[in-house]
Specification:
Elements lengths: L5 H25 L19 H4 L4 H12 L5 H19 L5 H11 L1 H11 L2 H30 L3 H9 L1
Protein name: Citrulline cluster-linked protein
Pfam families: QueT
InterPro entries: QueT
């Protein structure tokens, strides 16, 4: 068996991470759905479930999220709080062996941007509104559509082998 050297492994990792980041950004910017604001139906958020299968997807998804958030009307806010929220959710997703449970971490961690809204606006009403609207839209995209899609994709052995082996 031929052993790959570290350079090849590092290059493969960088290329795959860049592809994932680019895919996240493109799906955020191109899919005609609300992508920013209190109600966000980001189709790109389905990609976060890749972390459940392999934690090597974290850097690409964090980078993709940060870049996509730069296009937000509240770019600095979304880049800081939205990206932090995603990163923490990703780290927690690697700690479970249940896809649906893993899908709930991004839903629950939208509390971080909602909390940021509270501190910026000093308004409990804004916090509660943002929290529940963020959670509802994230739940629909990740925990409903995303989980169903990945459960279907789990039946494709070749696809899953590529995802898991990264």
């Amino acid at each position: 068996m031929i052993q790959r050297n570290n350079f090849t492994n590092d290059t493969n990792f960088l290329v795959r991470s860049a592809i994932i980041a680019a895919l996240y950004v493109v799906l955020t910017l191109v899919v005609p759905m609300p992508q920013y604001g209190p109600i966000q139906f980001r189709f790109s958020e389905i990609l976060v479930l890749l972390v459940f299968y392999n934690k090597k997807y974290i850097p690409g998804l964090v980078l993709g999220c940060a870049i996509a958030n730069m296009f937000s009307p509240m770019a600095w806010f979304d880049v800081i709080f939205g990206t932090l929220s995603s990163y923490v959710a990703f780290r927690l997703m690697t700690k479970t062996d249940n896809l649906f449970i893993a899908s709930l971490f991004p839903v629950l961690l939208v509390a971080i941007p909602a909390l940021g809204t509270y501190f910026i606006l000093d308004s409990t009403g804004a916090f509660i509104t943002m929290l529940f609207s963020f959670m509802a839209s994230e739940f629909v995209m990740v925990s409903v559509i995303g989980v169903i899609l990945f459960k279907i994709l789990e039946n494709n052995k070749a696809f899953m082998k590529n995802i898991i082996e990264f």
